[in-house]
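Model it.
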Amino acid sequence: MTMTVSPKSAARMACRAAGLADRSLTQLHQHATSVFLVPDEGAVVRVSPASQQERLEIAVSLTRWLVGNSFLATEPLAVPQPVTYAPYVVTFWRHYPQPEGAAPPVRQLGELLRALHDLPSPPIDLPRHLPLASLKSTVDSSTYLDSSRRAWLAGRREELLEAYASLEFPLGHGHIHGDAYPGNTLWANQGVRLGDWDEAATGPREIDLANTYQGVRFGRTKEELDEFGSAYGYDIREWPGLRVLSEIRDLHTLGSFIRRADRGDAAAAKQLSYRIETLKSRDDRARWKAA
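Modeled.
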């Protein structure tokens, strides 16, 4: 009989293998990745699908290089990682306790991205950024989506990829975070750090800027966007390609909700349905709820 390993069991086994005490392990949240806190070790344990192993190997190597070059990235622990406990892969990170209700200001992300893009190319083989690459398999394999929604999502994905292929990028190409938005910034003693490097890649620099502007869906204000653009040194709102990147981001955000709906998460299914309907009606002003 095959035993099914849970994310929490994988986290415990990985902690013990790394020599970390797991007695205080508690779950922080579960989304695409299950995240656990080990307060006794000052560590965060991230449990991801095993399919992400190559991405996570890159994330660990890249963040070690970034920290070594004085960039404020979230820091991986100095233990052998990632480690695999099928069907999961586990990574370990330093814990940065966050104050209640006081997220870092958006301008801090602009400053971090300016510093990131100004660094020399890292000595790491980063994959090429492929927009909406994971969405196809997520949609095709979904047990929650009906045939009409699956067909609409597939068609919309192709439309956006065609539009993306025709864009010209004035900021050029280079190493990018790939999933940069204010929710991936964390307060730290030295200031603000940028985390969640699973989608690091080489690609157009505009990718790292557009996600913050797509945040108007979640209440991002004009004043915040002004400060963000000023901190980075470029206002992407003056570039006609922003709309395409924002619409790609809109579609990209559906992936985790589809996977959660497949697992029977009723709240995720409700938000997914709302997002799809507002996208189909081209309602650019519809407010969405964060994950």
